[in-house]
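Why do we care about 3D structure at all? Because function follows from shape, and shape follows, mostly, from sequence. That is the central idea of this module. The next example makes it concrete: a single protein chain, its amino acid sequence, and then its structure expressed as tokens.
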Amino acid sequence: MAVKMILHQKEFEVSPGITLAKALQSLELHPEMYLALHDGDLITEDEVLHDGVVITLVAVISGGAR
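And the structure:
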């Protein structure tokens, strides 16, 4: 099996047994630019991803008043 990662309604698959940080790097995504959710819970970059897990990625938006 694989780990499914969803970003903007696009699905990507990565190998299980790697950390979230490594998975994001393999997709050429910068970890500091995304929040990762598993079953609605925020997970950290050092979380090891397991077979069959679905991760939803949400882009971090910054900005505000000047």
